[in-house]
Amino acid sequence: MSRPRIVFMGTPEFAVASLAACFELGDVVAVVTQPDKPKGRGNTVTAPPVKELALSRGVPVLQPTKLRTPPFSEELRQYAPDICVVTAYGRILPKDLLDLPTKGCVNVHGSLLPRFRGAAPIQWAIAHGDTETGVSLMVMDEGLDTGPVLAMKRLPIAADDTSATLYPKLAALGGEVLREFLPAYLSGELKPVPQPSEGMVLAPIIEKDQGRLDFTKPAVELERRLRAFTPWPGAFTTLGGKLLKVHRALASGGSGTPGTVLASGPDGIEVACGEGSLVLLELQPEGKRVMRAADFLLGNKLAPGSQPFAGA
């Protein structure tokens, strides 16, 4: 077919590489993104990154607050899309919208489906201790990331990867999977394959309190969750009634009653966990800067044998 007419739907920085790929692969006739939202300490109303790229390319930007009532598909119909490409848009698409493009809607999802269907696949891949993740290109249906898969690209998860470091790597991979496989799907050469029934794991939206360190859990699990929840919501505990964020930690082999300080010094603050121990390396007291454990201990004496953390 001649250059396809593409409607792109996406919102955060993660989707920008996918939109850039679409500009290469066809004529992007419209971009749909979430409404502008207040951001930062000053609550400045900020446009989504996808909108900024679209406007720089002179493409119409649509920011509906609702997709079902009135049917947003009627507004999109005027653009006569051959296909809709969706990356991290942030809403479930209704059937009338899925059925509108001639070739349907495809989605770039940040996991190896059916593992980690849902809103937070990058975070949960790290939290589960996976050593590999990737992106999937699938044809969308009405379910939550349940559509048949066209292609996958894989990426190793390094032992020190956080969501913040994995995010841009997977975003770039999303652009690659579109460049490599979307043309073959549009020409009819590439056929989608149903997802296997086994191996499905959900990746639900992250809640703030999930970042709280529960020292009754295994140290390995806490270290993974710290990396998974960086940058948000972070890992934290409470010390002296005030919030204490932990920015970097390592699992170790110490033992003791969970929450007990086993050692504290220049090499970190070692805290006993349900299994093993967690060595806190970089901390941020409430209202203060991030600091190494050695600097933190200059103003906070944590004696071995003490249980200073709330919930310990």
Automatic annotation (TrEMBL):
It comes from the Bacteria. InterPro entries: Fmt, Formyl_trans_C, Formyl_trans_C_sf, Formyl_transf_N, Formyl_transf_N_sf, Formyl_transferase-like_C_sf, GART_AS, Met-tRNA-FMT_C. This is Methionyl-tRNA formyltransferase. Residues 5-180 form the Formyl transferase N-terminal domain. Attaches a formyl group to the free amino group of methionyl-tRNA(fMet). The formyl group appears to play a dual role in the initiator identity of N-formylmethionyl-tRNA by promoting its recognition by IF2 and preventing the misappropriation of this tRNA by the elongation apparatus. Residues 206-300 form the Formyl transferase C-terminal domain. (6S)-5,6,7,8-tetrahydrofolate binds at residues 111-114. It catalyses: L-methionyl-tRNA(fMet) + (6R)-10-formyltetrahydrofolate = N-formyl-L-methionyl-tRNA(fMet) + (6S)-5,6,7,8-tetrahydrofolate + H(+). CDD domains: FMT_core_Met-tRNA-FMT_N, Met_tRNA_FMT_C. NCBIfam families: fmt (TIGR00460). Keywords: Protein biosynthesis, Transferase. SUPFAM superfamilies: FMT C-terminal domain-like (SSF50486), Formyltransferase (SSF53328). One of its GO terms (molecular function) is methionyl-tRNA formyltransferase activity. Belongs to the Fmt family. Its EC number is 2.1.2.9. HAMAP family: Formyl_trans. The gene is fmt. GO terms for cellular component: cytosol. Coiled coil: none annotated.
